[in-house]
Specification:
Urease, subunit C, domain 1, 2 domains, 10-stranded mixed beta sheet, TIM Barrel, alpha/beta, globular, 14 helices, 23% strand, 8-stranded parallel beta sheet, binds N-(aminocarbonyl)-beta-alanine, 467 residues, binds zinc ion
Length: 467
């Protein structure tokens, strides 16, 4: 199958140009300035011509932080790999990296096998895995080398959630030490979980049980402290570290300080920290539960610092941390006790559109939009230039994006398997028009034309973003 995308403006991390894109099978094979004889002959030989006049042609989004079918907080996140990756396609994301969880007492490989079984044959777009290490011991440390060989080159550890995923500083250091040897990237959930547990206990003792107390018991300083500690441990271990879901200015300040000193420290933020705030957790009744995620939403003034971090590359990636729970029968587990509200928000389908609003508002450039949503996550997690690029040899994961049409975000029209949207009624500019996943059209003129099972597991190289 030969596909020609003509008349569009190709936007990459490097810039913008009027280029026609020729695809053969699963790959991009050539780019040419529109209107030339070459493009004319391409058109004659094409099986399908997509006209991208007045539209952007961008590399498909790479969401490096999702949780499909994740057992958490006494329930399981609502999107399966099938529904979640279909929603990803609708939103212009053509690659996800999910987290395979090691159960305490079991091996990392058993966790990976379990997650491979969930995803195998179910995905609309390509996928890969990070591994969550819940049990740092001699055997799981050794196993990190095996997973790296299998293309699972990044490992998440938690300074939060004591009794669930929490790792001690000693364990974190041991995993970093191993990563310094085998080239893996340690991803850190950085919040001081031990101190937070004490704050939570004292709130509950005072009868403070509403959703807003989820936020008030996890102060930004507890995130800043943990980020600083994680960075210091990584510095001593001589390992690179990637801080996930940075939500606040103290956390970002610790990242900036380390990066200014030249340390290999990287960070992501998520749409919810750029667009939502603590006020949402304080909505009347139990509605605030819709906005409970960890780290929590912050007072609005943190948002300007995060946008600045995106401009300066102190925040290199925007990922969603997509971890959806239905309001009706899952979030309600926490009525009368905020600690029982399953933590996480849906936003996989909205990420490309939401971050495009940063372009509309003048916060970031078009190229930076592509860089933080596609190119940088691909480089960070060893997928570039297969993903995150439109160049000869790259996978034909391509989105045709219409920057001129408006849309209103709503649970009644989204495709995530969850009964609410954090952005309900928000009107935005721009919309995905067509999506190709490895040369296969998965979104065509407002319809889903993909298949569960088209998406493949992609083994990853080591981080390509080191300084
Ligand atoms: O609230 C969140 N973030 N849920 C998912 C688990 C995590 O910590 O990433
Ligand atoms: Zn986390
Ligand atoms: Zn997460």
């Amino acid at each position: 199958m030969r596909i020609l995308i003509k008349n569009g403006t190709v936007i990459t991390a490097e810039g913008a140009a009027s280029l026609d894109v020729l695809i053969e099978g699963e790959r991009v094979v050539a780019l040419s300035t529109g209107g030339s004889d070459v493009a004319g002959s391409w058109q004659a030989g094409a099986d399908l011509v997509l006209d991208a006049d007045l539209k952007y042609v961008i590399p498909g989004g790479v969401d490096a932080h999702t949780h499909m079918e994740m057992p958490f907080g006494g329930t399981t996140s609502a999107d399966t790999f099938e529904t979640g990756t279909r929603a990803a396609a609708w939103g212009g994301t053509t690659m996800i990296i999910d987290f395979a969880i090691q159960t305490k007492g079991q091996s990392l490989s058993a966790g990976l096998d379990a997650w491979q079984a969930k995803a195998d044959g179910a995905c609309a777009v390509d996928y890969s895995f990070h591994a969550i290490i819940s049990d740092v011991n001699e055997s799981s440390l050794k196993e990190m080398n095996v997973l790296v060989q299998q293309g699972v080159t990044s490992f998440k550890l938690f300074m939060a959630y004591p009794g669930v995923f929490y790792a001690t500083d000693r364990e974190i250091f041991q995993a970093m030490d191993r990563a310094a040897d085998n080239g893996a990237l340690i991803m850190m959930h950085a919040e001081n979980g031990i101190a937070i547990d004490a704050i939570v206990a004292s709130a509950l003792a005072k009868g403070q049980t509403d959703p807003i107390f989820h936020g008030l018991t996890r102060p930004a300083e507890m995130e800043g402290e943990a980020v600083h500690r994680a960075i210091t441990l990584a510095q001593v271990a001589r390992a690179p570290v990637y801080i996930v879901h940075v939500s606040s200015s103290p956390a970002l300040a610790a990242v900036v300080q380390a990066r200014d000193l030249g340390q290999n420290v990287f960070a992501e933020t998520c749409p919810q920290y750029l667009f939502l705030s603590e006020e949402d957790m304080a909505r009347p009744g139990f509605e605030g539960a819709k906005f409970v995620c960890t780290p929590p939403l912050r007072p609005r003034h943190h948002q300007a610092a995060l946008w600045q971090g995106l401009r300066t590359d102190d925040l290199s990636v925007v990922a969603t941390d997509h971890c959806p729970f239905r309001y009706a029968d899952q979030k309600e587990l926490g009525v009368g006790d905020f600690t029982k509200i399953p933590n996480g928000l849906p936003s996989l389908e909205n990420r490309m559109d939401l971050i495009y609003q940063g372009v509309v508002a003048g916060e970031i450039s078009l190229s930076r939009w592509v860089e933080v949503t596609s190119t940088n996550p691909a480089k960070m997690f060893g997928l570039y230039p297969k993903k995150g690029s439109i160049a000869p040899g790259s996978d034909a994961d391509i989105v045709i994006y219409d920057p001129l049409v408006g849309q209103t975000i709503s649970a009644s029209t989204h495709h995530m398997a969850v009964d609410y949207s954090c952005y309900e009624g928000k009107t935005i500019t721009g919309r995905v028009d067509a999506v190709l996943s490895r040369g296969r059209q998965v979104i065509t003129a407002g319809s889903y034309t993909g298949d569960a099972g088209h998406g493949r597991f992609v083994p990853r190289q080591l981080c390509q973003h080191l300084r």
